[in-house]
Each structure stands twice: as structure tokens, then as C-alpha cells.
Amino acid sequence: MKISLTINGNPVEMEVDGSTALLHALRAAGFWSVKHGCESGDCGACAVLLDGRLVNSCALLAVQAQGKSILTTEGLGKLAEQGWKTTAGLHPLQEAFVEIGAIQCGYCTPAMLLAAKELLDSKGYAPGGSPQPLSEREVRTALSGVLCRCTGYVKPVQAVLRAAARMRGEDPPPLEARPIPVDFPPYAETAPGSRPGSAAGGTAGALPVMTQTLPTLRITPQAAAYHSVGQPAPKVDGLKLVQGKPAFADDIELRGMLVAKVLFSPVAHARIKSIEVERARRLPGVAAVLTYKDLPRVVYSTAGQSDPIPGALDTFSLDSKVRFVGDRVAFVAAESEAIAREALSLIQVEYEELPAVLDPRQAMGPGAVRIHDEAEYVNFGESDPSRNLAAHLDIRIGDPAKGFDEAERIFEAEYLVPKVQQASIEPHAVVTYWDEDDRLVIRTSTQVPFHVRRILAPVLNLPPKRIRVIKPRIGGGFGGKQEVLIEDVAAHLTIATGRPVRFEYTREEEFVSSRSRHPMRVRMRTGVTRDGSITANEMYVVSDTGAYGCHGLTVTGNTGHKAMALYVGDGAYRQSPNIHFYADVVYTNTAPSGAYRGYGVPQGFFPVEVHMERIAHALGLDPLAFRLKNAVRAGELHPFSLAWSEGREPRPEYIQTCGLEECAREGAQAIQWEDKRGNSAWRASGGQPHLRRGVGAALVMQGTAIPYLDMGGASLKINDDGSFNLLVGATDLGTGSDTVLAQMASEVLGCPVEDVIVYSSDTDFTPFDKGAYASSTTYVSGAAVVKAAQQAADQIREVACEVWGEQGPPVAADDIRLEQGGVTAPDGRRLTLADIALRSLHHSNQRQIMAVASFMSPVSPPPFAAQFAEVVVDTETGQVRVERLVMAVDSGVIVNPLTASGQVEGGMTQALGYAVCEEMRYDKLGRPMVRDLRDYHLFSADEMPDLTTIFVETFEPSHPFGVKAVAEIPMDGVAPAVVNAIHDAVGVWVNEIPATPERVWRALRSAG
Amino acid sequence: MSDPMIEIVKPSTMREALRILARTSPRALPLGGGTQVSLFPTSAKVLVDLSELALAGIRVRGGRCEAGAMTTLAQIAASPRIPAALQAAVLRETNRNLRQQATLGGALAVREPGPLLACLLALGAEVSLEPGKVVEGLDGWLRRRLTGRKPAQLITGASWNSKQTLAYVDVARAPADRPIACVAAAAVVKSGRLGNVRVVLGGAGQPLALQLSPARLMEGVAVADLDRTMEAAGGVIRAPWVDDIRGTAEYRTAVAPILIRRALAHLLSAGA
After folding, report:
1. Nearest of A919, A918, A926, A931 to residue A327 by alpha carbon
2. Closest Cα of chain B to A247: distance in Å?
3. How many CB atoms lie within 10 A of CB A179?
4. Nearest CA to A541 among A576, A599, A591, A583?
5. Across the interface, which of B5, B33, B49 has its CB nearest the CB of A17?
6. What pLDDT is recorded for position A110?
7. Is the peptide bond before A897 cis (omega within 30 degrees of 0)?
8. Cβ–Cβ gap B34/A58 under 8 Å
9. What is the ipTM of this complex?
10. Comparing C-alpha atoms, which of A495, A366, A478 is closest to residue A426?
């Protein structure tokens, strides 16, 4: 039927059928800013203003918009400069979102903008109105229907407040990094109350109105001289994202494009006895139905890692056996999604059900059913499918047995960490098509475009040279898109039909069939002397990899490699630590685990940091002092560097920089640690007799890239106007890596950041990069960019020498400075970069100023952090409310405090979910108990604790600008800090996360 | 697969709406906010858009609060005529955007248990139905399953005694998460004592359980009696809890008396 409505002020007629959701009608009409994130109205990415009211268009029929007026972000505002034409420009909200760094992946940004617009309109900010001041609470409430997995909401809230201030005619203060020189004494225990600012009374009540737009930044002397590095530059992709441009994988329409759907297994373990697809194939509108009988049988791994994959090969695109509820059974391509769904319903499958094993301890026990019995299985390391072992690790450093013999006390405990999902708001999405050269183009939401090409080539029976992978903007990944998860589905169907195919997971399919964090059962055993020196530390992990072993070895290896590396012991033990880490990575009949931000390390630090807290309490020691006494320090050998390296040859690695002690001190001061911890008066200040306050801490470390393995490339060329194209294979999945890479190039080339036009990534055009994972992009890809920029800078100096040599006294190239968009000679002569470009491209001795470089690091310098949590615990129900999180982090030099603090805020928020509510569980038949965001629960803007970020810079000498990683480490310490805070509040230990009310209640009950 | 050939009609009178809804072929369904119909495939061929029937609004008349079926949850949460506890419960029901779309009528029609229906049940709400201006107790409405073979009834609103005091308390994994368990309690508070007590247990996806026996023990209770009353009531609290991702039935059983006690304390405090 035809409906008439107004969209963005323009009358529109749409032909829709009665069951079409408004979301799909709008996207079909080209309003790509309206995003699909779920099908149940839970995420709000699809929100539009309908007659001025924010509604979720996925939960509204298109016909309900008949006669109404819709505003999408396309109608909010446009970049003013459009060549010879000028528009009214961006809306102040759009400008503020770019300026404040409120955008990370940008997928939810259009909906957030509209939510904010609705609020502003309701408060008199529409033309002709009388604007009323806004409170932070009002803004948070307005944004609360739009879930963001990236930002932690700090900067979006600030952006709305800032835009509102401007619209009221006020002039908010400019963004300025507020560096404080690094200068403080070492951490020392101080008596409660000895610090200024007593904590008595707590922080109960309304959320504070935040006025801080940048984190506290303690800057190194080396970084103080930089002009671009260290500045809060707006994101280079901010303008397109804030306008809702079609930047994402699914924001494309191709002639004749088919829709793909997958039939997923309803049973946890079975052989397919028969599969009948003829009725589906005969359904009008169906272009292809594929089963395992139709595809070449190629074993591979879906893990997006470098060659050779450090793990077993155990996966087929389609197989005659299913190994979990949600495993693939058949692919369908059809003219519409409705037809594809109906075709799925017509496929008849007869399963021969096999026993399903859901508990990894049972799976590796005698007599357990074998999950991988395929002949093609390719072992890696100590994988043993006959025992359902995807991997086994056993790492001994020093002499752990001797260390335990020497211990005066030994502490043992077991901890459980859950399976959780990355839950990026953009689901996995891919479009495939043959190009005019018969090359297969894969446009996909991936973190690893080059791995996608390499891994899929044999699966599709195509050489890599006939595959082109395009990575557009990514709506969040967090490791979930470090997986070659759905690209093969669309690719097989394009090969089968010759037509373009799009495939996108639904939210339920994400929960049922996608990857997630490995759940683990961890046993800790630690020997100490009475004065608190660790003599030996042991961790045994049972890691549940699910039905396939993707990332199983390396994720679990990192659990020990990072979390067990932090505490080496003191005195003689510091020189020769005794550490034992061993693990079994076990197949079960559940959805596969995989990569998720932190990559095994959060699973390790929860047990380590709760365990350390328990030991400190048992010994009567200050928990921070005990930790710092035993923690690794600058100048010391990374204890695991001689023992293990993600499946590669380990090599010795010394820690060059460590700001851990300063982080502990800064964080403790920010949360008023000494005043609050153990303070019974403060503890009881929750306002109700059954409420108790508590404060907890955790110290953590991560890594920066994988040494001798991770490599990134960069290509740089100058244009006529002195601007540069920077082509990188690095994958900005919302982290802001394109921006910090541009800043580093800008620093070397002496040009404005906006004169560096970044393109990432396309396997045809951009140099190789291993992709966005392991916290490596700023460090590895950034170093490649710096090298390329330095080469280009040398060429620029050569041209300047030529020019000045022709015009007067010659100038030595080494004496020429690149600054302020040009070059300057010691005698003051100056050329702009445009002068240089025109000379080199057109006028004389013509050549392209260009450079290509790559970087591979021999080290993985660890960032360090101290994380703190403040909680209120209900002693009767076990309910926990986290009121404040503080993170002080040493990530080396901070290239961009906006994007870096955004990483910390967003990471802390994900970690908060890990701590208190997020988990995926299965029923006794292996069926997922969580299938939507409503039951999974992501934190929304109106329920967030106060977040504080502090950067304590060190200068990492292995990088030209002294950087280390920042993206993953925020995941590591929140859960243990929260659980330690619960103990501080109510005196019980919670050994399993999330610390749900029931788990806390059980701990309280057990304690009597 | 849903049939794409769905017809949408927008009647301007109740009579016309009821006439269309009375059809058995093609089957017709009422369309309120659309949050349910758009999400789930329906066998209906006709959707009757109720937006022009003047069914939205909240008023207090004759000691009763009346809310129209097309009143959105956001309007309920914002109305000064609605008890604060009911507003708080509605905020727990779903997210802000959906509250701006979803209607009271939709919530009653779907019967999905949660904080809103728990509160309405505690308030002893009645559901208004057409044709015939039928009024049915919410308890009976929730227990009655629509078979589709009976003549269609259209929900036009709900009402309750506005002189009652309502309390709502819950426990949840996160501040804005749907509740693991919740308690809605309504009473008339006079001279610091409870009267006409109704207590309902619920939670996200949990069956609603009206606590008749415990409520009888709470009649006439004052603040000083709370501990003793709950000791007596604890043994007769019954709810068909089920295990789910948020918690176990055992946990819900354990915290229910705690939540009830808090709800009663709130009632007495609010009525003081």
C-alpha cells in the first residue's frame, strides 16, 4: 500500500506492505542513518523523531507513519561547505558531538542526536523558543533509550550540555588538555583521614553535573614539545558519522541484491541424517539453497589471526554434523528476507541426536562424547580432539615447587568468570558481489580485512588475488569481528547465484550463533611469606571454548601471560619469580567462544586481583602496598617473555616503563581510598540500615601488540594542495585509530591534522595490516605511519633544498623544519607544503612525494593501571549498586586525550557489565537462555556510575612517540575492584561474576 | 512468515472499530502503539488503528483514576495523576523510547507480566472493555485466555481506586534492568494502619502472584507490627517463581518477604 508522509521536511510517498517495520521502509528509501541494532526496540539505534517524539522504528509499522512527519539525522544538518553551495551547516548538537569526541564507532550517534534534539525541543531550544537550562540527569534520561557500547555515555552527555549552552548564547570553555607534570612520591600507606577532603557522607544522591570534558593528564616532558600528538583533535571520521552518512557495511544498495539467511541447528549435538531442500528451492523468489552437500569440504579456523593460525583447524562452512544450538545447517539466498525466512521453514532436517556435553570438566573426562571426530581435523600444539581438548598449556617459570616449599602460608581458592558477548550495536553484516573483473568483493564489518581474504581464499576455492575485502566504518567490534564469521555465507551464495548477496545477523542470531568471551573456571594457589612476599603463584584454568576452538589457545594463554605476570614477588623472588600457569581449553556443545576486548586477560585478573586482596586481608597488610611490593617494575624481565608468545618462539623482553605505582597513588587519591576503606562510619552512610558502602581496588597490566608477529603498513602521498592521503590497512572500528594515526603523521609532517586524509581499509589499495586487535593499532600501525611520514618529510626537505638552492644560499636538509603547513629554513625562508607539492608534481624535477613503510615490534610494552570501585550493597537482597569507577592508567604518551579517555570510559562500562550483570548461560539442552538485549542488559545512560579517568604518562622508548596501548586494559580491573569493594562493604567474598544480587546474597548467607 | 498483504484501517468511531474487530474472516486485531504487532508475525489480515478513538488520557473522577487504553507508558510515567510508585514501576517496564510508543492497552492485551501489571493488580484495577461497556477485574482478565473464537473485545482502558496508597519495590542486577523480583502493594492507610491490603509478587517474565493470605495478616498493621507480621506472613507467601537468567526461584522466594516488608513500610511511611 502507498503511504504519504513527510521526511526531513520533504513530502514522500512510499510503497510498503502492511507488515513492514518503519526501520526497513526508511532504509529502503535511502535514509541510512536509521540503523538496525535489534528487532525488539531494545537498543534504540533505529530511533527517529515521529511528529517530534523519539520512537524506535524497528518497533513501529511503516503504515503507522501515514500522514506524520519524520526527522532522521539526514535532516538535522549538513556540512556547510558544499563547493559553490553553502548549507545552513551542522546542528549545534552535531558540532558538539564532533568537538567533544562523543562519537566512537558512530553507529548509535544518529539516534543519540535525535534523542538530544527531542530534549532540546521540549526545553524551548527550537527556533522561537525560550531555552531552559538542562541538568545532566535530564540529558541522561533523554539518551537512555539509545544503547551505546563504546562511550560510557560521558562524552555524549557532555556534548548535549555543551550544545545547549551554545544555543543559550553561552560560550563554554574551549577544550584544552590540562597537563600536569609527572612529579609525585611513591605510594605509601597513610592513615585514614590524613588526607584532605574527608569522605564522610559519601556520594549518595543525584549524579553530579560533570564539567570536566577531558581526563586528568599527567604528561611526560618528552610529550610536552609535541604540537599535534597530545592534542584533543576531533575524529577524522566524525563529520560523516554525525551526519549519518552511509558509511557502514550494510549501507549500500546493489541492483539485484539477494538476502541471505541461515538455518541454525535447534539441537546441541547431532549428525544430519537427511536434509531435504527441494521445497525451499522451489519457493518463488528463492535463488539458492546450500547444504554441506553443495560446498567443498575445506577445514579452517574462523579465528582472524596471522598465518599460521595458532590453533586447531576444526571448522567447515557447512558440515554434516552440528555441534551447538545455533550451528549452521543450510544457507538460503532469496529476493527478500520474508521469502528467505519462509524457505528456511521449508527445509526438512532429520537429526541423529548425540549426547551433548555442556560442562568442560565433563567434556575432558573419560567416556565423554567426542565433539570433533572429523578426519580433516588439523591439530595445533597439544590439541587432542579425542579428549575434547582444543589446546593445553603448561608454563613454568622458575621453580614453583620450591617456591611453595618456602612459603609460610599458602592460599588457594577457585573463581568463575562467565561467558559474555561483545554486543556491538552493529550486528555482523556483509555484502558480497562479483566485480567486472570476476573478482569477489567482500564488503564486511570486520576488524581483520586481510585475514578475511587469506582465510577465505581456500574455503571459496579462489586465490587471494581474486578476492577484495573492503572494510567500511565498523559499528563496534570489541573482538567479535576478529572472526571470519559470516563472510563465507554471503560469498558462497554469490558464487552459487552470481548475484550480490547481503547477510546480516539479527540480534538473536548474535546471541545464539556468534562468538563471545571464554568462560573459565580458575584455581589460584599462592605462597607468601608472613611479610607479604609472594614465593610462588599458580593458576590452573579450565577454559570453555565451545564447539570450535577459535582463539582458544591464545585467549587462554593470555590469561596467564598477562594476569600472572604482574606479581613476581619481592626480594630474591623478584629476581627469580616462581610462576606456574597451566590450562585446558575444552570443547563443549555450546556456542564458540572467541576474541573479546582484553583477550583472556579480564578472565585472569578477576581471580588474581580478588585473590591478592584476600591474601592481603589474611596477612593484615594494606592491599595496595602488598600488591606494589610484589608487582613487576620497570627494568625487569617480563616473566612470561621467555616462556610463551601466542604460539610463536618466545624471546626475552624487558619492561621499559611502568607507571603502576603512580597510577595506584593517583587513583587512590581520586576515590579517597584511605578515607573510605575500612571506615565503618562511611560504610554505614548509605541512607538505609540495610545499605553498606565499600571501596575496592585492582592493579592490572596488558600488552601492546604481539611481538615479532603483528605488523602494520602505511602509505602516504602528497597532493597538489600540500595535503596528504594516508592509506592504512589498520582497522578503525570506532576506537579513533584513524585520528591518532593522522595526528602522528601531522606531527612529523608539520601539517594540520585535517590535511591528512585517512583511508582504511581495502585489501586492494591499502598496505597490509594484521587488523585491529591486541591493542596494537596506535603502537604498531602508528609506528608504520611515523616511518612513512619521516620518509615523506625527507623528500619534502629535498625539494625545499632544490628550491632554496636555486634562489639563494643552499640549505642543508637536516636544518629544515616542517611546521605550520610548510618548511622553514634556518634563515627564515619559508615554503608552504602546497609550494612543495606543486613544484614536485608539476614544475621541476617532477616526482611523487610518497612513502610506504611498515613496522613490526620486537616487544609488547605493557600498559599498567590501577582501577577503583565504590559500591553500595543491600545486605538483605545482595543487590549491588556501583556508584563510582576510577581508572588511573599508564598508557605511555597519550596521542589524543579525547579518544583515549573515550576508550577508558567505554571499556570501564563494558567491564561494569562483566562485573554485575552480563552473562550467557545455557539450559540443560544447550539452548541459550539469553537471546536479546533486554535479558542481557547493557548499561544505559541513566544508570551509569560516575567515571573518572586519569592518564599517568610514561615515555615508552620502543615507539617514536612513546605510546603504549589503552584499548583493552580498562576491561581488566573493574570486576575485581567491584568484588573487593563488596567485601569492604559487607565482609564476604564473591568468587563468581557477575556479582548478581543472588550471588552476593548467597555469599552473605554462607557467611552467616 | 507473516502475510505482507495486511490491511490497516483507521476507524473514527468506536462502533466502526468494533464492527471491524468482530469479523472472523479476515481476522482483525487492534493496533495501539504497534510495538507488539511490528515485532511478531501475526496471522491477522486487518489491523485496526485505534489512534482516532480518543482513548488516550488519564483522569481522576469519582474517586477513581481512569487511564485510556491508548495512553502511552511515557504518559503514565509523567502524569501527576499517577501514583509515584506506579510511575517508578513503569520506568522499570521498558526503555524510554518504547515507553513513548507502547500503550496501556497493549500491555493489558499482551498480559506480559512485569512491574506495570503487578502494580495495577495490587491496585485492584479493572479493565474496561467494549462492546457493552464491560468492566472486568484485572485479576480475572489476566487469568482468562483469549481463544480467538469468542467475540472480540476491545480494551478501552483501566481504572482503580485513587484513594489507595501504592508502594513498589524490587531487586535488579542493574539500576535500569528489569527486576529479578518485585513487589507491588496497595492499601488504604488510616491512622498509621494498613487497610484493604493487596500485595502482588512479580518480576521480569515471572508469573504475577496475588498474595491473598499474607495480605489478610497485614490488615490493621502499624509500623511497630511489621516484623511480627512478616514473621507470620512469611510462611504463607506463595509464588510460582521460575528460574531464569536473572535468578533462581529459590532466591526470589527468599527475598520476597524482604521486599514485601519494605513495601509495607513505604505504604505506612507514605500514608503517615
Report:
1. A926
2. 25
3. 18
4. A583
5. B5
6. 98
7. no
8. no
9. 0.96
10. A478
**pLDDT reported for residue A218:** 77
Residue A453 sits at the vertex; the CA angle it makes with A450 and A455, to the nearest 5 degrees, is 105
Whether residues A591 and A686 fall in one domain: yes
The reply to whether A918 falls in a domain is yes
Across the interface, whether the CB atoms of A930 and B245 are under 8 A apart is answered: yes
Distance of CA A39 to the CA centre of its chain: 23
The three-class DSSP label of residue A410 is strand
Q: Residue A191: pLDDT above 90?
A: no
Per the listing, cell 566504518 goes with: A473
A946 alpha-carbon distance from chain centroid: 21
Size of interface A-B (CB pairs under 8 A): 149
Q: Do A60 and B259 touch (CB under 8 A)?
A: no
Domain count of the fold of chain A: 5
Least Cα separation, residue A44 to chain B (angstroms): 7
Q: How far apart are the first and last CA of chain B?
A: 56
Mutate: best of A38, A56, A929, partner B, most B CBs <10 A: A56
Residue A373 Cα distances to A294, A299, A370, angstroms: 21, 13, 6
Q: At what angle do helices B249-271 and A997-1006 cross, to 10 degrees?
A: 100
User: Considering the domain boundaries, does residue A70 fall inside one?
Assistant: yes
Q: The domain that contains A595 carries what CATH number?
A: 3.30.365.10
Per-residue confidence band for A1008, with pLDDT thresholds at 50, 70 and 90: confident
Instruction: Tell me if chain B has a CB within 8 Å of the CB of A138.
Output: no
Task: Give the pLDDT means over successive 10-residue stretches in chain B (272 positions).
Answer: 66 94 85 81 79 95 97 98 97 96 95 95 97 94 68 90 97 98 97 96 96 94 94 92 97 97 95 70
Question: Which of A147, A937, A939, A1000 should we substitute to test contact with B (largest number of B Cβ atoms within 10 Å)?
Answer: A937
| Domain ranges (residues) in chain B | 7-49, 58-161, 165-271
Query: Is the same domain home to A696 and A730?
Result: no
Average predicted confidence (pLDDT) for chain A:
94
Determine the structural domain holding residue A454 and report its residue range: 258-356+428-475+481-507
* Torsion angles phi and psi, residue A624, rounded to 5: -70, -40
In this structure, are residues A568 and A577 in contact, taking their beta carbons and an 8 Å threshold? yes
The gap from C-alpha A202 to its chain's centroid, in whole angstroms, comes to 32
Closest Cα of chain B to A338: distance in Å?
Answer: 7
Q: What integer pLDDT is reported at residue A180 of this predicted model?
A: 55
Q: Is A587 in the same domain as A640?
A: yes
| Residue A94 φ then ψ, to 5° | -65, -45
Closest CA to A795 of A853, A833, A723, A849: A849
Cell of A812: 642543508
CA geometry: angle at A365 spanning A359 and A371, to 5°? Answer: 65
- State the nearest Cα–Cα gap between B62 and chain A, in angstroms: 33
CATH for the stretch B165-271: 3.30.390.50
Q: Tell whether A615 and A646 lie within a shared domain.
A: yes
A412 in any annotated domain: no
pLDDT of residue B147: 52
Name the fold adopted by B58-161. Answer: 3.30.465
First to last CA, chain A: 66
By C-alpha distance, which of A795, A790, A787 is closest to A853? A787
- Written as nine digits, the cell of B213 is 493470605
Q: What is the pLDDT of residue B4?
A: 52
The torsion of the CA quartet B142, B147, B148, B149, rounded to 10 degrees, works out to: -130
CATH code of A15's domain: 3.10.20.30
Instruction: Rounding to the nearest 10 degrees, give the CA dihedral for residues A117, A118, A123, A128.
Output: 70
Contact list, B180 vs chain A (CB under 8 Å): 996-998
The SS3 call for residue A692 is strand
Q: Please name the residues in contact with B221: beta carbons below 8 A apart, sequence gap of 6 or more.
A: B193, B194, B197, B229, B264, B268
